[in-house]
């Protein structure tokens, strides 16, 4: 802590500068009141929205494309070839709202396919030598989160779309996640946020928040962190398959003496041995075989020979990854710091190394040789583009043909009423026929899950795959199909999940701009999801997730969705799903929701700035109670920005109680701000005092100054003859004395 | 049911404020809001924030009485609006009493005023009040009708005030007779 | 003076002189509810303005002579220390403006409290209370019909829209023989003056009260048959015109 003497002059937090002129006085007519800035803003917004490239009609796109073979091998090189016609299309999220870093993209990326990692002992040994105690998984994990380059995905009607922000999530197949975690993950989340706030040099707690040139507030980093952690819950559950592995990487190294046998043994472990997934996880998933070649110690010709052998035995899903086994230190010429993993769950953040200890090289983020980084990136890209995506596309196509289309047809609709009776008839895959033993369809009441091969589970998995491939049209319709099934079976958690994801899919689908009725449908689904999660399953984390997703996506939809968005955020607070930091964050978020609603062009109504301002003030109050004056100050500053054209020419609220409250809040924020800096309050506040007294004087007389008409003729009442009460302060009004 | 009634000038200056409780079904006419005494400013914040909606509804609907226009869910505060033709806004915030059973123990939410006064509200009076039709459902037709009658009566008294040559548009209404009349209207209808 | 009756002025002069319970007579700082302790001057019959019925005088009429004297005095008052005709008209306008605001409230109150009455039936004949005008035309009809009837016991004589494409925001309300000018003959050197600027102020008050920013002026437009013919030019502000477009798109009538 620096002493006041030698410190640079303390800049007061922005909201304390009392001399800031407010926006011109409020008249009743917006065009006089304000300069053209609102119109400018909305124009800019419109142009930004309009700048997102138009999408070709799907039918036309589909017609040009050849019918795809179902086999992933046939076109495994497709994704990496550069002449892709549609790769020039931006992804629908590009430039649409806040740029690539926006919340929508974050939500989409949080539902990335999961790829399990299972490495042989010798591989982990090699990687540990490089300084990664967690083994091979820890080494490649950060690189999966954003696959370099554009990933092209084809949807169910054959249209291709390129995505810049595609990613996969690597999980350690070995470490079985403890199941008790999800219960207290909300309190962990709160604790993690607290830790982040408290860490001394954390940029998240800082006063300054970046504002873009339109002075629209960007999302606070702390909130983004909250959202990321909320969406990072790693425990797989039966009711949704997002955390079930889509593929698993089986890794050996060039040090292995019996490589093929080891690969077979590792495979056996994942399918029937101790690395087997729980029985509600579909046992069939893609296996991908990797040979790690030790560049520093082993002979590349040997490894190449082994690699060819692997390809002969295991097919094309193989990769030769050439890594150096020496540890890289920061002083090495081509050292590269590996990026921090973006998707850390709350528990990882709590136990993680957010504060570097003494030795940066060993305990901070580790370093890698640049050649290693390039090799890993190439490996991840090849894995995703040539194996994982085609595999998923293929599964979606197959399941769509074999299961979903039956349900969608006319007969399917009848069948859904009496599914048991018809079963799935002579399906080509016998495994798809429901076991049919239970009284209530295929739902195993005792264990509370569907077996992975029954139609209900397969459809869910297919919808989840489509969702992860960002084909939200297909996923929405599939989820919709499932809603009644789960309700009939009283599979409440499935029921909640499918409502949640149906609403999310509809909101994410960029082609369907929902009208009022659509928003009502979505609200109904969110309501159902929340009720099922909370009341029927007491699953608070998922309830919070569904409310938060609904809020964010409705917000990004704009228009009448804003009201619903704010409503869901308030619901989350009301249900007590968030802790005290979360309350403050959500208050800010509600404010942001309301603030994002712009007035209708040409008239003064349509915005929600008063509501937004109120929530910012409430957030400031909450931050202050949490002992964080700098965040309180930021929220207060935001409130003043929002209230700017509500307040009168003196910068005062029309309502006295509000004014008093905000004045007190401002004062307390300033006090605790200086206290937190350890400054002597007495001398620092002295210069500000005259301004403050000035302000209170204005308060006392402001009521008399208001009058009704602010239009063309200035102050008719005061200059006219009718105001008895104001002779003394209005010299123009001396007619009465003279008369 | 607790009420906070305010008259706002076209420039949002409050001309008149009054807080009162229901007198129906054995209510004693005393307001018991869900905020603690130190947080009564919330009433003004909520009223003020509802102006966003009122201003929008004002131009979509030509009625004087706009019915229930806005809700502040964290405190279940409902706002009804009446627009005097010359631009003054009559806003009534009504808040059903908090039933002891609905006081979910989320201590954190009380920071926003939602969960405060469960203990302050005696179980007896609140349950009696909530049995009346008006308090039971703030958006029911009966409530809308009762509020309409209240608003009409206040409007009459307001016109009388406005007609006085000593009253200018935009001045605070300080007349004790006016206050008595509004209180009486509240007792009669709400 | 065969028809010396004037209802609206009466209603105002009737309620005005009894401002008993008004705040200006109590010290502003001590706002105490107790009537006895405020030092309010309560008339001996204990009746305040709040005890009087607003509709009792709705059909009562006033001596035209009384009105003429009152208005003459108002013009004289406004004339003090004016710098010119425009200044005088501005003052008359400002005297009318608060009246317009009040009349608006009274007008709606009277229609609401006796919706069977036909005196305001130009906009709607149904029993439901009339709507606030949201668009320009209903507002002008309100002025042309009910307001004029309340003030002068007859509707105005014409309502026109500017035909010039440059001034779509201009409307004209014509009164062939304005009551306020009946007993006023303007001196030659002030021939531009029209004392109906007072009525223009009333109209402006009504427009503004309804949320239509407007500037209203009175102009002499004599014809052979009507030497006192006066045109009230209503010019709406830009914000009103913008709003018209939005409301038109939204289908608001």
Automatic annotation (TrEMBL), chain A:
Name of a matching Pfam family: TRAPPC-Trs85
PANTHER family per the UniProt record, alphabetical: TRAFFICKING PROTEIN PARTICLE COMPLEX SUBUNIT 8 (PTHR12975:SF6), TRANSPORT PROTEIN TRAPP (PTHR12975)
Superkingdom of the source species: Eukaryota
Protein name: ER-golgi trafficking TRAPP I complex 85 kDa subunit-domain-containing protein
Region (Disordered): 1-99, 684-739
Biased composition (Polar residues): 77-91
UniProt biased composition (Acidic residues): 726-739
Organism: Aspergillus avenaceus
TrEMBL record, chain B:
InterPro entries: Longin-like_dom_sf, Sedlin
GO cellular component: cytoplasm
One Gene Ontology biological process: endoplasmic reticulum to Golgi vesicle-mediated transport
Domain of life, source organism: Eukaryota
Classification via PANTHER family: TRAFFICKING PROTEIN PARTICLE COMPLEX SUBUNIT 2 (PTHR12403)
Protein's name in the database: MIP-2A
From TrEMBL, chain C:
GO biological process assignments: endoplasmic reticulum to Golgi vesicle-mediated transport
Predominant location category: endoplasmic reticulum
Family annotation (CDD domains): TRAPPC5_Trs31 (cd14943)
A Pfam family per the record: TRAPP
Highest taxon above the source species: Eukaryota
SUPFAM superfamilies membership: Ligand-binding domain in the NO signalling and Golgi transport
Protein family: Belongs to the TRAPP small subunits family. BET3 subfamily.
Name of the protein this chain belongs to: Trafficking protein particle complex subunit
Organism per entry: Aspergillus avenaceus
């Amino acid at each position: 802590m620096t002493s006041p003497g030698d410190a640079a002059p303390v800049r007061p937090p922005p909201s304390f500068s009392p001399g800031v002129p407010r926006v011109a006085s409020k008249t009743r007519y917006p065009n006089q009141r304000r300069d053209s800035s609102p119109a400018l803003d909305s124009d800019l917004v419109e142009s930004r929205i309009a700048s997102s490239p138009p999408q070709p009609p799907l039918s036309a796109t589909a017609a040009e494309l050849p019918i795809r073979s179902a086999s992933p091998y046939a076109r495994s090189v497709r994704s990496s070839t550069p002449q892709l016609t549609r790769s020039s299309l931006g992804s629908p999220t590009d430039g649409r709202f806040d740029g690539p870093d926006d919340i929508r993209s974050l939500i989409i990326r949080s539902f990335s396919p999961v790829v399990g990692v299972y490495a042989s002992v010798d591989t982990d040994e090699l990687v540990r030598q490089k300084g990664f105690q967690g083994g091979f998984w820890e080494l490649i994990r950060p690189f999966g989160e954003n696959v370099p380059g554009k990933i092209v995905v084809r949807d169910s009607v054959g249209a291709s779309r390129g995505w810049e922000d595609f990613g996969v999530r690597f999980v350690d197949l070995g470490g079985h996640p403890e199941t008790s975690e999800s219960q207290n993950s909300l309190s962990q989340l709160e604790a993690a946020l607290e830790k982040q706030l408290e860490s001394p040099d954390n940029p998240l707690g800082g006063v300054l928040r970046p504002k873009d040139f339109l002075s629209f507030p960007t999302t606070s980093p702390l909130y983004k962190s909250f959202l990321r952690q909320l969406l990072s819950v790693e425990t797989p559950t039966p009711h949704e398959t997002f955390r079930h592995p889509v593929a698993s990487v089986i890794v050996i190294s060039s040090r292995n003496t019996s490589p093929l046998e080891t690969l077979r043994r590792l495979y056996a472990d994942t399918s029937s041995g101790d690395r087997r997934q729980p029985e509600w996880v579909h046992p069939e998933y893609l296996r991908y075989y990797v040979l790690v070649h030790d560049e520093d110690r082993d002979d590349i010709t040997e490894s190449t020979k082994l690699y060819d052998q692997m390809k002969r035995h295991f097919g094309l899903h193989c990769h030769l990854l050439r890594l150096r086994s020496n540890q890289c230190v920061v002083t090495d010429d081509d050292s590269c710091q590996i990026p921090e993993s973006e998707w850390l769950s709350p528990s990882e953040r709590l136990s993680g190394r957010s504060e570097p200890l003494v030795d940066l090289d060993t305990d901070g983020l580790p370093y890698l040789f640049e050649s290693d980084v390039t090799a890993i990136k190439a490996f991840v890209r090849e894995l995703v583009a040539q194996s994982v995506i085609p595999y998923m596309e293929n599964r979606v196509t197959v399941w769509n043909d074999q299961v979903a289309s039956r349900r969608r047809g006319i007969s399917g609709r009848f069948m859904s009423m009496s599914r048991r009776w018809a079963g799935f008839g002579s399906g080509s895959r016998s495994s798809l026929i429901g076991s049919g033993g239970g009284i209530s369809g295929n739902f195993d009441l005792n264990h509370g899950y569907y077996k992975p091969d029954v139609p209900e589970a397969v459809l869910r998995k297919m919808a989840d795959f489509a969702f992860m491939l960002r084909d939200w049209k297909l996923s929405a319709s599939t989820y919709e199909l499932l809603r009644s099934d789960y309700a009939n079976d009283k599979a409440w958690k499935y029921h909640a999940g499918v409502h949640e994801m149906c609403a999310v899919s509809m909101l994410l689908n960029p082609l369907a701009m929902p009208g009022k009725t659509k928003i009502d449908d979505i609200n109904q689904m969110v309501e159902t999801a929340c009720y099922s999660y909370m009341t029927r399953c007491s699953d608070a984390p998922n309830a919070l997730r569904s409310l938060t997703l609904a809020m964010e996506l409705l917000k990004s939809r704009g228009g009448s969705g804003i009201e619903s968005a704010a409503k869901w955020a308030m619901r989350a607070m009301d249900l007590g799903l968030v802790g005290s930091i979360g309350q403050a964050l959500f208050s800010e978020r509600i404010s942001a929701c309301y603030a994002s609603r712009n007035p209708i062009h040409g008239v003064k109504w349509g915005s929600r700035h008063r509501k937004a301002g109120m929530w910012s003030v409430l957030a400031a109050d909450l931050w202050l109670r949490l002992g964080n004056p700098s965040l309180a100050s930021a929220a207060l500053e935001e409130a003043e920005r929002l209230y700017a054209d509500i307040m009168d020419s003196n910068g005062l609220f029309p309502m006295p109680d509000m004014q008093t409250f905000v004045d007190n809040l401002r004062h307390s924020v300033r006090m605790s701000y200086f206290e937190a800096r350890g400054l002597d309050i007495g001398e620092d506040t002295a210069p500000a005092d005259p301004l403050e007294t000035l302000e209170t004087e204005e308060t006392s007389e402001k009521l008399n100054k208001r009058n009704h008409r602010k239009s063309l003729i200035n102050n008719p009442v005061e200059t006219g003859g009718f105001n008895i009460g104001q002779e003394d302060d209005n010299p123009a009004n001396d007619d009465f004395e003279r008369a | 049911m607790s009420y906070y009634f305010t008259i706002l000038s076209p420039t949002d200056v409050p001309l008149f404020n009054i807080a009162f409780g229901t007198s129906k079904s054995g209510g004693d006419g005393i307001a018991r809001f869900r905020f603690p005494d130190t947080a009564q400013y919330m009433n003004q914040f909520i009223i003020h924030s509802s102006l966003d909606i009122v201003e929008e509804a004002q131009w979509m609907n030509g009625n004087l009485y706009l019915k229930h226009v806005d809700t502040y869910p964290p405190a279940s505060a409902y706002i009804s609006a009446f627009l005097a033709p010359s631009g003054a806004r009559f806003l009534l915030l009504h808040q059903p009493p908090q039933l002891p059973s609905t006081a979910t123990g989320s201590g954190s939410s009380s920071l926003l005023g939602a969960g405060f006064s469960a203990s302050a509200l005696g179980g007896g009076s609140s349950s009696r009040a909530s049995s009346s039709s008006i308090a039971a459902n703030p958006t029911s037709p009966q409530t809308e009708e009762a509020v309409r009658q209240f608003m009409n009566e206040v409007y009459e008294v307001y016109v009388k005030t406005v007609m006085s040559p000593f009253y200018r548009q935009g001045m605070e209404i300080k007349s004790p007779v006016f206050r008595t009349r509004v209180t009486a209207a509240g007792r009669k209808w709400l | 003076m065969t028809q010396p009756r004037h209802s609206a002025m009466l209603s105002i002069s009737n309620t005005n002189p009894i401002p008993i319970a008004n705040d200006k007579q109590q010290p502003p700082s001590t706002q105490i509810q107790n009537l006895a302790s405020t030092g309010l001057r309560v008339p001996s019959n204990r009746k305040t303005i709040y005890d009087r019925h607003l509709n009792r005088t709705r059909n009562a009429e006033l001596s035209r002579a009384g009105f003429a004297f009152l208005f003459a005095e108002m013009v004289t008052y406004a004339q003090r220390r004016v710098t010119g005709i425009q200044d005088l008209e501005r003052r008359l306008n400002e005297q009318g403006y608060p009246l317009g605001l009040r009349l608006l409230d009274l007008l709606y109150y009277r229609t609401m409290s006796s919706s069977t009455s036909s005196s305001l039936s130009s906009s709607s004949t149904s029993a439901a209370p009339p709507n606030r005008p949201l668009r320009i035309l209903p507002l002008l009809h309100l002025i042309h019909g009910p307001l004029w009837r309340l003030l002068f016991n007859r509707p105005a004589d014409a309502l026109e829209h500017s035909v010039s494409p440059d001034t779509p925001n201009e409307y004209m309300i014509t009164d062939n023989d304005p009551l306020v000018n009946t007993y006023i003959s303007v001196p030659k050197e002030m021939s531009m003056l029209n004392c109906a600027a007072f009525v223009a102020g009333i109209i402006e008050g009504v427009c503004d009260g309804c949320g239509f920013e407007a500037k209203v002026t009175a102009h002499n437009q004599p014809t052979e048959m009507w030497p006192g013919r006066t045109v009230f030019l209503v010019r709406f502000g830009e914000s009103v015109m913008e709003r018209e477009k939005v409301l038109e798109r939204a289908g608001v009538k």
